[in-house]
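Intended use. Records like the one below are meant for learning the mapping from a protein sequence to its folded structure. Do not use them to infer anything beyond what is encoded.
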Amino acid sequence: MPEKIIVAGVPVDTRHFIGGRRVASTDTFDDVSPIDGQVLGPIARGGPAEAEAAIAAAREAFPAWAATPRAERARVLHAIADGVEKRVEELSAVETHDNGALLRSHRRGVMPRVAHNFRFFADWLLTLGHEDFETRGHTNHVSWDPAGPCVLITPWNAPLMLATWKVAPALAAGDTVVLKPAEWSPLTASLLADIATEAGLPAGVLNVVQGYGAEIGDALTSHPDVRRISFTGSVPTARRIAASAAANLTPLSLELGGKSPLLVFADADLDLAVDLAVEQYDNAGQVCLAATRILVEESVAEEFTRRFEEKASALVQGDPREEATDLGPTIHPRQLEKIDGFVRRAVASGARTVVGGHRRDGQYYAPTLLTDVAQDSEIVQEEVFGPVLTLQTFADEEEAVRLANDTRFGLAATLATGDRERADRVTARLVAGTVWVNCFFVRDLQAPFGGSRLSGVGREGGTWSFDFYCDLKNTVTAPNGWTNHG
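Structure written out for the chain above:
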């Protein structure tokens, strides 16, 4: 296999990165661009041997990195951020080719956020700590000890941003990392390894291994030397990871799927509500936080639907490299089949198509809104992960909350209302890790992030990330008894 492929003029090493050096595999898999189906190149396909080597490298590098002073760790993380900022154009172009998300979004939002992830956790590290406190004259001192090697398994919908939500706090905490990117979008993880090395990150502190699902994942998640596992992805995969980690009682952070609601009350700014609803098509609907279930108060449902149809029909779907494009392709033919299957079964069961409801050429699926759907139907209860929304109506606040909470998930919720007291009442009753009121996708890294029910286990962000990536130690010291008073 070639050591590097050229993507949008950018050379990308397709080998693993283990212990500070590039490592090839006998087997490979093709990385295919969803834009046009072009094979970008063969990627090293790892298995148990590569997993073992990466964990061994992380284990060996851990003591020195854990002992590195906080200020030095923070300096290296800022240097990684500098490297990301210097390569925003390259990273954006490669990731757009790899996963089909909009180039303009990568340039203006996603890649700057990647750099911010490193800067935020570098700075947060320097302020982290608790004041000592007294217990009957004894002093309690809490320390944040690095936990050890971490396995981080990341999804394909926002590959580098979601990877660095995990990598940055883990490195800041003093842990070492084995990063396993999604097989459908592995390229920017490889570039991150290059950037981290150039920034002075010691060999073995960050390792990147590539491969398909369980063939490498089980070896990573069942290893007794792994001290933390963080995963973003599907519920079935999370169940497998949890079972694999159970023998070693390895702590898990799981950010899983969602079937989030958008509640639109009659007192809402209707134009704002429609804008919020159409925004759920972002990244071709391949966003775990997307409010895919639109719940609208009966008295404004007809007008809301009319305005929504008008605005959604004006969206431009096509090549994500074009500035005018609003929606790109779905990531993979398997995902396209899954989306289309959901819609066809819903229509066969009586759902009515308001907009979309069909494939377009290539791996593109038209932005779709379905109504006349039953609350217990598959299309309402299961995550589609594509540009497909449903619309239901409610009579009053009580019914709105009941419908909103009536799924197995609890990742997020969005609320459109002009009544502050109603917003307070409703948000207090919603089952969700994040609730947005009259806005969407405003994400501050110092806030906790995660889901309830089947949407996940644990929270990350700010101090919550360090709670996960550190072992907290409380040292209790008696006031007397010292024999050496020097």
